[in-house]
Design brief:
Length: 40
């Protein structure tokens, strides 16, 4: 249900490549997006 909202939020982030020995390398990562539901 919140998958789309999480993808939209993360897609706005700016990622920089990880550099090893002066070269960008491919890495795999997991991102946890926490939602707080409900009002005050």
């Amino acid at each position: 249900m919140l998958d789309r909202a999480a993808i939209e939020a993360v897609s706005q982030w700016l990622f920089r490549p990880y550099i090893l020995n002066g070269q960008p390398i491919e890495v795999e990562t997991q991102i946890t997006v926490n939602f707080i539901l409900g009002g005050s």
